[in-house]
Amino acid sequence: MRSSDRLPTTPGRSADSGSVLVLGLGLVLVALLVAGVVVDASRLFLAQRTLASLADGAALRAAHDVDLAALYASRPAGALPLSGRTVLADVDAYVRAQAQANGTGQVHVVTAQVNGGTVTVTLEMDQHLPLLGTIVGQPEVTPVTATATASTWVVASP
Question: What is the pTM of this model?
C-alpha cells in the first residue's frame, strides 16, 4: 500500500482509533444481554420454588381431610381414606390465602386428585419475564407449574 492511498489522519492518531469504541459498545451489549438472561432465569427459578412450596403446603393441608365416616366404618390398615369432596375446596382456600399473604399473585389449582390415602396437587401461575421478554419483543408470560403429593397412614401402636 502506498502512503498516498491512506486516509488522512491527524498527527499522533492512527486510522484504527475508533475500533476500540465499537468493541467496547459490543462488549457492553453482550454483558447486558447476559445480565438479562440471569435475572429472568433467576426470577423463573424463584417462582418455581415458591410455587413448589405452596403446592407442598396445599397437599399437606388436603391430607388432613380424612373421611371420618369411611374411617369408622371400615377401620382401615395402612392409608387413611380421604374425603374427595372437601379436598379441592380446602386446597383452593389454602392456595388463595397463602398466595395473598405471600404476595405471590395469581395461582391456579390445576388438579387436586385423591387416590386412596394420597393427595396430588398441581398448581400453576404465570410469570412475566421483564428484561428478555421486552428485548426479544415478546413480553408474554411464561407458565410455571409445580406438583406435590402427600399421604396419610395409620401407624399401629406397639
Answer: 0.71
